[in-house]
Amino acid sequence: MAAVRVEEVLAAAEEQEAEKRRSVTVEKELELEFDLGNLLALDRNPPPAAGLRGAGPRREALLRALARDNTQLLKPPPRPRPPTRWEQFARLKGIRRRKRTSLVWDEQAREWRRRWGYRRAGGDPARAWLAEVPEGADPEEDQFARLRREKRERVARNELNRLRNLARAHRAATAVPAAPLHPTGHQNREELAHVARVARVSTASLGRFQPRLPKEPAEPPSRSSGGRKRRFEPLLGNLAAERSRQLELLRDMGSKKPVLDITRAVNKQLRQEEAEAAAAKGKKQSQRGKRGRRQQRAGR
User: Fold this and answer.
1) In percent, how much of the chain has pLDDT > 70?
2) Residue 119's closest CA among 111, 131, 143?
3) In angstroms, what CA-CA distances link 87 with 79, 96, 100, 101?
4) For the whole model, what pTM was predicted?
5) Quick check: 120 and 113 in contact, CB under 8 A?
Protein backbone atom coordinates (compact mmCIF):
# COMPACT_ATOMS: atom_id res chain seq x y z
CA MET A 1 0.00 0.00 0.00
CA ALA A 2 2.87 2.36 0.78
CA ALA A 3 4.35 1.86 -2.72
CA VAL A 4 1.02 2.61 -4.34
CA ARG A 5 0.60 5.78 -2.35
CA VAL A 6 4.09 6.98 -3.29
CA GLU A 7 3.40 6.37 -6.97
CA GLU A 8 0.14 8.28 -6.74
CA VAL A 9 1.84 11.19 -5.03
CA LEU A 10 4.57 11.27 -7.67
CA ALA A 11 2.03 11.07 -10.49
CA ALA A 12 0.01 13.91 -8.98
CA ALA A 13 3.15 16.04 -8.62
CA GLU A 14 4.14 15.39 -12.23
CA GLU A 15 0.65 16.29 -13.40
CA GLN A 16 0.72 19.56 -11.47
CA GLU A 17 4.13 20.43 -12.91
CA ALA A 18 2.87 19.62 -16.41
CA GLU A 19 -0.15 21.86 -15.86
CA LYS A 20 2.15 24.72 -14.90
CA ARG A 21 4.32 24.28 -18.01
CA ARG A 22 1.38 23.66 -20.34
CA SER A 23 0.67 27.39 -20.65
CA VAL A 24 4.01 28.07 -22.34
CA THR A 25 5.47 24.78 -23.61
CA VAL A 26 3.97 22.26 -26.02
CA GLU A 27 5.66 18.97 -26.86
CA LYS A 28 4.74 16.91 -29.93
CA GLU A 29 6.23 13.70 -31.25
CA LEU A 30 5.76 14.79 -34.86
CA GLU A 31 6.33 18.38 -35.94
CA LEU A 32 3.31 20.28 -37.22
CA GLU A 33 2.97 21.59 -40.75
CA PHE A 34 2.21 25.33 -40.82
CA ASP A 35 0.54 27.54 -43.43
CA LEU A 36 1.15 31.01 -42.01
CA GLY A 37 -0.66 32.71 -44.89
CA ASN A 38 -3.92 31.07 -43.85
CA LEU A 39 -3.00 30.66 -40.14
CA LEU A 40 -3.37 26.90 -40.51
CA ALA A 41 -1.59 24.21 -38.49
CA LEU A 42 -1.79 20.54 -39.55
CA ASP A 43 -1.27 18.09 -36.67
CA ARG A 44 -0.42 14.54 -37.80
CA ASN A 45 0.02 13.19 -34.27
CA PRO A 46 -2.64 10.50 -33.52
CA PRO A 47 -4.98 11.61 -30.71
CA PRO A 48 -5.76 9.20 -27.87
CA ALA A 49 -8.55 6.96 -29.11
CA ALA A 50 -9.97 6.37 -25.63
CA GLY A 51 -10.61 10.06 -25.05
CA LEU A 52 -12.48 10.57 -28.36
CA ARG A 53 -14.95 7.74 -27.91
CA GLY A 54 -18.49 8.84 -27.28
CA ALA A 55 -19.70 12.36 -26.56
CA GLY A 56 -19.19 14.03 -23.25
CA PRO A 57 -17.22 16.63 -21.30
CA ARG A 58 -14.04 14.54 -21.45
CA ARG A 59 -14.04 14.57 -25.25
CA GLU A 60 -14.72 18.31 -25.39
CA ALA A 61 -11.92 19.01 -22.92
CA LEU A 62 -9.50 16.89 -24.98
CA LEU A 63 -10.43 18.69 -28.21
CA ARG A 64 -10.04 22.10 -26.56
CA ALA A 65 -6.63 21.09 -25.20
CA LEU A 66 -5.48 19.95 -28.66
CA ALA A 67 -6.74 23.18 -30.26
CA ARG A 68 -5.04 25.23 -27.56
CA ASP A 69 -1.67 23.44 -27.96
CA ASN A 70 -1.72 23.72 -31.76
CA THR A 71 -2.64 27.40 -31.56
CA GLN A 72 0.26 27.95 -29.18
CA LEU A 73 2.61 26.34 -31.72
CA LEU A 74 1.10 28.36 -34.58
CA LYS A 75 1.39 31.73 -32.78
CA PRO A 76 4.24 31.54 -30.30
CA PRO A 77 4.72 34.52 -27.98
CA PRO A 78 7.35 37.00 -29.25
CA ARG A 79 10.72 36.92 -27.63
CA PRO A 80 11.76 40.01 -25.68
CA ARG A 81 14.09 42.31 -27.57
CA PRO A 82 17.62 42.28 -26.16
CA PRO A 83 18.64 45.65 -24.68
CA THR A 84 20.98 47.84 -26.66
CA ARG A 85 24.34 49.05 -25.39
CA TRP A 86 22.87 52.43 -24.55
CA GLU A 87 20.00 50.82 -22.62
CA GLN A 88 22.46 48.69 -20.67
CA PHE A 89 24.60 51.76 -19.91
CA ALA A 90 21.53 53.79 -18.88
CA ARG A 91 20.33 51.00 -16.59
CA LEU A 92 23.79 50.74 -15.05
CA LYS A 93 24.05 54.50 -14.46
CA GLY A 94 20.42 54.95 -13.47
CA ILE A 95 19.59 57.23 -16.43
CA ARG A 96 15.88 57.56 -17.15
CA ARG A 97 14.43 58.65 -20.45
CA ARG A 98 12.42 61.85 -20.19
CA LYS A 99 10.06 63.01 -22.89
CA ARG A 100 10.42 66.68 -23.81
CA THR A 101 7.21 68.64 -23.73
CA SER A 102 6.14 70.80 -26.66
CA LEU A 103 5.51 73.84 -24.42
CA VAL A 104 8.10 75.84 -22.49
CA TRP A 105 7.83 78.87 -20.25
CA ASP A 106 8.73 82.17 -21.92
CA GLU A 107 10.22 84.60 -19.40
CA GLN A 108 9.73 87.65 -21.62
CA ALA A 109 6.09 87.01 -22.53
CA ARG A 110 5.31 85.43 -19.11
CA GLU A 111 3.30 82.63 -20.69
CA TRP A 112 3.64 79.09 -22.00
CA ARG A 113 4.66 78.94 -25.66
CA ARG A 114 5.71 76.36 -28.21
CA ARG A 115 9.27 75.15 -28.22
CA TRP A 116 9.57 75.49 -32.03
CA GLY A 117 7.61 77.09 -34.85
CA TYR A 118 5.34 80.11 -34.97
CA ARG A 119 5.17 82.17 -31.75
CA ARG A 120 7.82 80.02 -30.12
CA ALA A 121 9.40 80.79 -26.79
CA GLY A 122 12.03 83.51 -27.00
CA GLY A 123 10.59 84.94 -30.21
CA ASP A 124 12.36 85.41 -33.52
CA PRO A 125 16.04 86.36 -33.03
CA ALA A 126 15.89 88.50 -36.19
CA ARG A 127 13.22 90.73 -34.58
CA ALA A 128 14.94 91.17 -31.22
CA TRP A 129 15.99 94.67 -30.15
CA LEU A 130 19.39 93.37 -29.01
CA ALA A 131 21.75 91.09 -30.94
CA GLU A 132 24.85 89.46 -29.47
CA VAL A 133 28.10 89.75 -31.41
CA PRO A 134 29.62 86.26 -31.82
CA GLU A 135 33.17 85.64 -30.73
CA GLY A 136 35.62 86.18 -33.57
CA ALA A 137 33.12 88.13 -35.72
CA ASP A 138 33.71 91.56 -37.22
CA PRO A 139 32.59 94.15 -34.64
CA GLU A 140 31.58 96.53 -37.43
CA GLU A 141 29.22 93.99 -39.02
CA ASP A 142 25.50 94.61 -38.73
CA GLN A 143 24.27 91.63 -36.68
CA PHE A 144 20.60 92.36 -37.41
CA ALA A 145 21.30 92.21 -41.15
CA ARG A 146 23.22 88.98 -40.61
CA LEU A 147 20.28 87.41 -38.74
CA ARG A 148 17.84 88.49 -41.45
CA ARG A 149 20.15 87.10 -44.16
CA GLU A 150 20.49 83.77 -42.35
CA LYS A 151 16.73 83.56 -41.99
CA ARG A 152 16.23 84.18 -45.72
CA GLU A 153 18.78 81.47 -46.48
CA ARG A 154 16.97 79.00 -44.20
CA VAL A 155 13.65 79.82 -45.83
CA ALA A 156 15.16 79.37 -49.30
CA ARG A 157 16.80 76.09 -48.27
CA ASN A 158 13.50 74.79 -46.91
CA GLU A 159 11.72 75.81 -50.10
CA LEU A 160 14.34 74.03 -52.19
CA ASN A 161 13.92 70.88 -50.12
CA ARG A 162 10.16 71.11 -50.56
CA LEU A 163 10.57 71.40 -54.34
CA ARG A 164 12.94 68.43 -54.33
CA ASN A 165 10.41 66.34 -52.46
CA LEU A 166 7.67 67.37 -54.91
CA ALA A 167 9.86 66.50 -57.90
CA ARG A 168 10.81 63.15 -56.38
CA ALA A 169 7.18 62.35 -55.65
CA HIS A 170 6.20 63.42 -59.17
CA ARG A 171 8.82 61.15 -60.74
CA ALA A 172 7.76 58.26 -58.54
CA ALA A 173 4.08 58.79 -59.42
CA THR A 174 4.66 59.02 -63.17
CA ALA A 175 7.03 56.05 -63.35
CA VAL A 176 5.45 53.07 -65.06
CA PRO A 177 6.04 49.92 -62.95
CA ALA A 178 7.20 46.89 -64.84
CA ALA A 179 5.03 43.81 -64.93
CA PRO A 180 6.13 41.36 -62.22
CA LEU A 181 7.60 38.06 -63.36
CA HIS A 182 7.03 35.27 -60.87
CA PRO A 183 8.81 31.96 -61.54
CA THR A 184 6.51 28.98 -61.66
CA GLY A 185 7.07 25.29 -62.04
CA HIS A 186 5.31 24.91 -65.39
CA GLN A 187 5.25 27.80 -67.86
CA ASN A 188 3.35 27.78 -71.11
CA ARG A 189 4.48 29.21 -74.43
CA GLU A 190 3.00 32.68 -73.81
CA GLU A 191 4.76 33.08 -70.46
CA LEU A 192 8.11 31.97 -71.87
CA ALA A 193 7.72 34.36 -74.80
CA HIS A 194 6.91 37.22 -72.44
CA VAL A 195 9.96 36.48 -70.28
CA ALA A 196 12.23 36.32 -73.35
CA ARG A 197 10.81 39.61 -74.65
CA VAL A 198 11.41 41.36 -71.34
CA ALA A 199 14.97 40.02 -71.14
CA ARG A 200 15.70 41.16 -74.70
CA VAL A 201 14.50 44.75 -74.27
CA SER A 202 16.35 45.15 -70.95
CA THR A 203 19.51 46.31 -72.75
CA ALA A 204 20.55 49.89 -73.52
CA SER A 205 19.47 49.53 -77.16
CA LEU A 206 16.07 48.10 -76.14
CA GLY A 207 16.87 44.82 -77.85
CA ARG A 208 17.54 46.31 -81.28
CA PHE A 209 20.85 44.45 -81.69
CA GLN A 210 19.99 41.31 -79.72
CA PRO A 211 19.79 37.98 -81.61
CA ARG A 212 16.34 36.45 -81.84
CA LEU A 213 15.32 32.93 -81.04
CA PRO A 214 14.46 30.48 -83.82
CA LYS A 215 10.92 30.97 -85.16
CA GLU A 216 10.52 34.14 -83.11
CA PRO A 217 8.43 36.78 -84.91
CA ALA A 218 10.13 40.08 -85.63
CA GLU A 219 8.55 42.94 -83.71
CA PRO A 220 9.67 46.48 -82.89
CA PRO A 221 11.31 46.97 -79.49
CA SER A 222 8.95 48.03 -76.72
CA ARG A 223 9.47 51.53 -75.40
CA SER A 224 7.15 51.16 -72.43
CA SER A 225 10.08 50.88 -70.03
CA GLY A 226 12.54 53.00 -72.02
CA GLY A 227 12.90 56.66 -72.87
CA ARG A 228 10.29 59.08 -74.09
CA LYS A 229 9.59 59.58 -77.79
CA ARG A 230 8.73 63.02 -79.11
CA ARG A 231 5.43 63.34 -80.86
CA PHE A 232 4.59 66.04 -83.38
CA GLU A 233 1.17 67.25 -84.27
CA PRO A 234 0.10 66.86 -87.92
CA LEU A 235 0.29 69.94 -90.17
CA LEU A 236 -3.24 69.45 -91.45
CA GLY A 237 -5.86 68.42 -88.95
CA ASN A 238 -8.49 69.70 -86.57
CA LEU A 239 -8.61 73.50 -86.73
CA ALA A 240 -10.62 73.79 -83.53
CA ALA A 241 -7.94 71.99 -81.49
CA GLU A 242 -5.24 74.17 -83.08
CA ARG A 243 -7.21 77.32 -82.22
CA SER A 244 -7.68 76.21 -78.59
CA ARG A 245 -3.94 75.49 -78.22
CA GLN A 246 -3.01 78.91 -79.60
CA LEU A 247 -5.51 80.66 -77.32
CA GLU A 248 -4.16 78.78 -74.32
CA LEU A 249 -0.62 79.79 -75.26
CA LEU A 250 -1.63 83.44 -75.54
CA ARG A 251 -3.46 83.23 -72.23
CA ASP A 252 -0.33 81.88 -70.53
CA MET A 253 1.82 84.58 -72.09
CA GLY A 254 -0.53 87.33 -70.95
CA SER A 255 -0.89 85.96 -67.43
CA LYS A 256 1.07 87.71 -64.69
CA LYS A 257 1.58 84.50 -62.78
CA PRO A 258 4.58 82.63 -64.25
CA VAL A 259 4.28 78.98 -65.15
CA LEU A 260 6.84 77.11 -63.03
CA ASP A 261 8.17 73.72 -64.02
CA ILE A 262 9.06 72.26 -60.62
CA THR A 263 11.10 69.36 -61.96
CA ARG A 264 13.12 71.55 -64.31
CA ALA A 265 13.74 74.17 -61.62
CA VAL A 266 14.94 71.59 -59.09
CA ASN A 267 17.20 69.88 -61.63
CA LYS A 268 18.70 73.22 -62.61
CA GLN A 269 19.37 74.08 -58.96
CA LEU A 270 20.93 70.67 -58.36
CA ARG A 271 23.24 71.04 -61.37
CA GLN A 272 24.25 74.51 -60.20
CA GLU A 273 25.04 73.26 -56.70
CA GLU A 274 27.07 70.35 -58.05
CA ALA A 275 29.04 72.71 -60.33
CA GLU A 276 29.74 75.11 -57.44
CA ALA A 277 30.85 72.23 -55.19
CA ALA A 278 33.16 70.85 -57.89
CA ALA A 279 34.65 74.30 -58.51
CA ALA A 280 35.24 74.88 -54.78
CA LYS A 281 36.85 71.44 -54.45
CA GLY A 282 39.16 72.07 -57.39
CA LYS A 283 40.10 75.47 -55.99
CA LYS A 284 40.99 73.96 -52.61
CA GLN A 285 43.11 71.27 -54.25
CA SER A 286 44.97 73.84 -56.35
CA GLN A 287 45.65 76.01 -53.29
CA ARG A 288 46.85 72.96 -51.39
CA GLY A 289 49.21 72.05 -54.26
CA LYS A 290 50.60 75.58 -54.43
CA ARG A 291 51.20 75.59 -50.67
CA GLY A 292 53.04 72.26 -50.91
CA ARG A 293 55.27 73.51 -53.75
CA ARG A 294 56.10 76.65 -51.77
CA GLN A 295 57.13 74.57 -48.78
CA GLN A 296 59.34 72.39 -50.97
CA ARG A 297 61.03 75.46 -52.43
CA ALA A 298 61.57 76.91 -48.97
CA GLY A 299 63.09 73.63 -47.79
CA ARG A 300 65.57 73.68 -50.66
Assistant:
1) 76
2) 111
3) 17, 10, 19, 22
4) 0.30
5) yes
